[in-house]
Amino acid sequence: MTRSSSAERKIDVSWVTDTESATRRFQVFTERQLEQIPQLEKLSDEQRFTMRVVANVLPFRVNRYVIDELIDWDNIPDDPMFQLTFPQKEMLSPEQYERMADLLRRSDDKAEIRELANEIRQELNPHPAGQREMNVPLLDSERLDGIQHKYRETVLFFPSQGQTCHAYCTFCFRWAQFIGDKELRFSANEASKLHRYLQTHTEVSDLLMTGGDPMVMKTKHLEGYLRPLLGPQFSHIHNIRIGTKAISFWPYRFISDPDAEGLLELLRELVARGKQVAIMAHFNHWKELSTPAAQEAIRRIRETGAIIRSQSPLIAHINDDADVWAKMWRLQNNLGVYPYYMFVERDTGAKRYFEVPLYRAWEIYRDAMKQVSGLARTARGPSMSAGPGKVEVQGVSEVNGEKVFVLRFIQGRDPEWVQRPFFAKYDPEATWLHQLQPAFGEEKFFFQKQYEAMCEEAMRQTD
């Protein structure tokens, strides 16, 4: 048997550049275009109104590829890709929903709608885990609002050109980036400040480009941020990570977009010059990996020498099923994608609809791991990206007659916390770290006093 040539394995993407048909080009729908989505005609007037209510509070954006290729419109509303991208009534509390619904029934005043939406958004914890107070660093006494530096080795950068996505996830913990409120947005458009900050912090080995989605940027903008890192003054930056949902929501970014080849060449050059490039892909369900376009995008990325790591939160209504995770991890392993993290849904936005109790998250993780080979058991979790750091639920156990959660830090604000196990009282209702209490009669967790002091110092600096 002879191996197929690269040309034979490529998919037909000629339809992508056909601008004569709306179904054959990148086309976005937001709240204002909900009624223009043909598939929604199957839904009742009340269902469509419900979507409009929620979409006036939480961001909504979807594209033709997602609508046509990923959603099973014969399985609405239960289809996981529909749940992932289209607003659901329960994403707001009953009281929040009725406030907005009542206003929309009696008024179309945009200013009034925006004012109420902003009131509700403030109730949804727009910046969890101390992002605004504790993660934003200083350079020459100036806050760098487009940078976060929470962990010693890793800097997050939010380029202004990448503060949107090809489509929005309904559960997204960075939903505040997308609602048009500059006060709630992290972004930076000055590459020079990023480069100066990295030059002065030689303890940093990893740069994570995030957003939004950096892959919505033109390649020329991405080059402006990344190519200078090849200089000798950045020899301490070993790893360049790019967080993206593009493989799922617009794989043609790597196939047939006008600057797709330039993007792949940039990745190739970074790798050839000694940088480790990791595409931090967000896959929430195996369906996203099942299309020929997604698989071709993965093949093209891997040919540059970049690696692809996958991460996702565990999300009710979308992937709260061990079989779904096992199938996704097996498929990723087959495609050359490395499972990296199973996260716990963050305490922000529509968490009330998407969160899963910690004990159940651990059971799903364990039951999924039992179904895959060792090569697919590289995902860590379930992990909470909480204020003190990334805290992993390692299991539920019984110690001296007390039922407990076994926890540890995968990453911490203080590196000394990393890999230290600790115990919390078992709580079947708990969904996040702050809801847990120390076990064995302890007053505080071992890190708590130090973390509280960090919070107080951060508040003093921001006053």
Characterise the protein shown here.
With 463 residues, the protein is α/β, with parallel strands linked by helices. Helices cover 32% and strands 18% of the residues. It contains 16 helices and 15 strands. It has helices at residues 6-9, 45-55, 64-70, 80-85, 94-106, 110-122, 131-134, 191-200, 219-226, 246-249, 260-272, 292-303, 322-335, 351-354, 358-369, 448-462; strands at 28-30, 61-63, 138-139, 142-143, 147-151, 154-157, 206-209, 239-244, 276-282, 307-314, 338-344, 380-385, 389-399, 402-412, 421-425. The chain is globular. Residues 1-23 have low confidence and may be disordered.
Count every helix, treating DSSP H or I runs of 4 or more residues as helices.
16
| Average pLDDT | 89
- Major beta-sheet overview: 11 strands, mixed
Structural class: alpha/beta
How much of the sequence lies in strands comes to 15-25%
Unreliably modeled segments: 1-23
Distance between the termini: 69 Å
Overall body shape: globular
Strand line-up of the largest beta sheet: 5-6-7-8-9-10-11-12-13-14-15
Helix content: 25-40%
Radius of gyration of CA atoms, rounded to a whole number:
22 Å
Q: Give the beta-strand count.
A: 15
